Structures are given as structure tokens and as C-alpha cells.
């Protein structure tokens, strides 16, 4: 059995997350998590996100490499994006840097972009 390689590095440049056309956050302190051959995931520092747009949900998932993820729904003027953001409140040591950060499920109406 092979183990996935996970790396967490500072993401180059400035990153923005939008939902329903509204900017939820912008940061130059994002982290990029690369897990095996999966596409990179950008994690935003929580303090750089408008948390008033997010509502915590009861949804949880567990990753054997990262730990348990908590989820948030994004409330925009036009709709609610269910479980569209997640955070590892107590991540495993290999990804400890993502503690206090949020990642977003890129979907129709939710975008994560380098600006």
C-alpha cells in the first residue's frame, strides 16, 4: 500500500474567494495543500474570510491523512451553498499548518481565484 504524499506550502500571490458574486475573502497568506495527484486546494486564513457569510453545519468527514473536517454553508443573497467550505479544527501533524484555515468547494457560483 502506498501512502499519499501531502505538502502544505504558502500559495504564491493573492487569492480571493467569491460566492454568488460577492467577495467572501481575499488574502496574500493562503496555503496550498497538495495531496497525491489530486488538484491543489487553497486554504484561506479564517481571519481573512467574512465569517458572517458562513453557517456551521452538522456535516463531518474524516480523512485518514488530515483528520476530521467541519463544514460550513455559504449564505449569499441569491442562494445557500450547502457544506461548501470546510476546516480542520484539529488537523493531524503532517498538515498542522492548515489549522485555523478554510477551504472552499469550487462549484457553480463559488470561485477561488488568484488575483
How would you characterize the overall build of this protein?
- This is DUF427 domain-containing protein.
- It comes from Ponticoccus litoralis.
- The protein is mainly beta and 115 residues long.
- The protein has a single domain, classed as Domain of unknown function (DUF427) (Metal Binding Protein, Guanine Nucleotide Exchange Factor, Chain A, Beta Complex), CATH 2.170.150.40.
- Helices cover 0% and strands 55% of the residues.
- It contains no helices and ten strands.
- Strand 7 and strand 8 form a beta hairpin.
- The model has no long low-confidence stretch (mean pLDDT 95).
Number of domains: 1
Structure classification: mainly beta
Q: How do the strands of the widest beta sheet line up side by side?
A: 1-4-5-9-8-7-6
- CATH architecture tag: Beta Complex
Helix content: under 10%
Largest sheet, in brief, is:
7 strands, antiparallel
- Uncertain parts: none
One letter per element, helices H and strands E, the order comes to: EEEEEEEEEE
CATH topology: Metal Binding Protein, Guanine Nucleotide Exchange Factor, Chain A
CATH superfamily descriptor: Domain of unknown function (DUF427)
- Distance N terminus to C terminus? 39 Å
> If helices are DSSP runs of H or I spanning 4 or more residues, what is the number of helices?
0
Shape field: globular
Pfam families: NTP_transf_9
Protein name: DUF427 domain-containing protein
Domain DUF427: 16-105
